[in-house]
Design brief:
There is one protein chain. By secondary structure, this protein is α/β, with parallel strands linked by helices. It has three helices and seven strands, in the order βββαβββααβ. The longest helix is centred in the middle third of the chain and has 13 residues.
């Protein structure tokens, strides 16, 4: 049975490249899934997308970033629950090094790693357009895709 649609949730995500490697995270507590994504998260009302994103990246990875231009708008949904999210991906520049010892205060992100484009292609990740957005130019739009678990 398909659930009744709800208003979309807005999230901001970071495309952070260093030495041709992209920073990705596993946002499933205790590694319940092998799915990887770019760091970021839900937007709090009353603050800008870049402010939200810088805060989320710091929480999820321990890294400080400067937020640049948008690179991708991606939508996904879960037909079973009606969940619908719109992610806006921004190109970000890392400021300093990621701390070796780090714990996500919300306990959501369980792993973080830098990957090459070839390594990303061998990992289960979302959205499907993550690689082209991270290593490409311009702004991409990736229309509604079904969420995976």
């Amino acid at each position: 049975m398909t659930a009744r649609p709800r208003s979309p949730r807005l999230a901001a995500r970071a495309l952070i490249l260093r030495d041709a490697r992209l920073l990705i995270v596993n946002a499933y507590p205790a590694g319940r899934s092998d799915l990887w994504c770019a760091p970021g998260g839900g937007v709090a009302a009353g603050t800008s997308l870049p402010e939200n994103l810088a805060r989320e990246v710091r929480e999820e990875t321990g890294l400080r970033v400067t937020v640049g231009d948008p690179a991708l708008v991606n939508e996904f949904h879960d037909p079973e629950t009606g969940f619908h999210q719109v992610d806006i991906y921004f190109r970000c520049r890392p400021e300093g090094e990621m701390p070796a010892r780090w714990v996500d205060p919300e306990g959501i992100v369980s792993q973080r790693r830098w990957v090459t484009r070839a390594e990303l292609a061998g990992l289960r990740h979302k959205p499907d357009s993550l690689g082209p957005a991270a290593w490409g130019e311009g702004l991409l739009y990736d229309p509604l895709e079904v969420i995976v678990r």
